[in-house]
Every structure is written in C-alpha cells, then in structure tokens.
C-alpha cells in the first residue's frame, strides 16, 4: 500500500516546484486551508522560510495584503 501524501508534503512539493506559496494558492491548488500550520510543522522539521508581506488591491479596489512563504533552507522530510 502506498504511503499517504500529507498536506505538509504537498505544501513542500508545491514550494519546491513554484518557489513560493500563498494561502490562496495552497487552498486553490492543493486543498490546504491551514497553510501557517503546515509551515510551522515544516519549521519544526528544520526547514526555514522567508515570509514576505505582499500588498495589493482586491476586486473592489480596496487595499489588502497577504503572506508569501519562500523556502530558504531545507530540512529533513
């Protein structure tokens, strides 16, 4: 029986393939609703991330922001 791929594994794979991840992309592309928790779990395993605050405007023209996580150092999987 194949090993179940966890959300944590999917988040890491996504970052490795795309260079970064946001909560929107985590939800939309891999079905992860608690990105900050998965990032924290990866940090506990020795991974290091840079968190950038991205400022933008929403569909109504109102200012908003979100976090983008970028892998800085790999750890143990």
Task: Find the CATH topology.
Answer: Aspartate Aminotransferase, domain 1
The CATH class designation is Alpha Beta
Can you give the mean pLDDT?
Answer: 93
Strand fraction: 25-35%
Q: For the record, give the distance between the C-alpha atoms at the N and C termini, rounded to a whole number.
A: 20 Å
Shape: globular
Number of strands: 3
Percentage of residues in helical conformation: 25-40%
- Give the helices and strands as they follow along the chain: HEHHEE
Order the strands across the largest sheet as they lie in space: 1-3-2
Descriptive report:
The protein has 77 residues and is of the alpha+beta class. The chain has a single domain (7-73), classed as Alpha-Beta Complex (Aspartate Aminotransferase, domain 1), CATH 3.90.1150. 39% of the residues lie in helices and 30% in strands. It contains three helices and three strands. It has a three-stranded antiparallel beta sheet with strand order 1-3-2. Helix 1 packs across helix 3. The longest helix has 12 residues, at 7-18. The protein is globular, with a radius of gyration of 14 Å. The two termini are 20 Å apart.
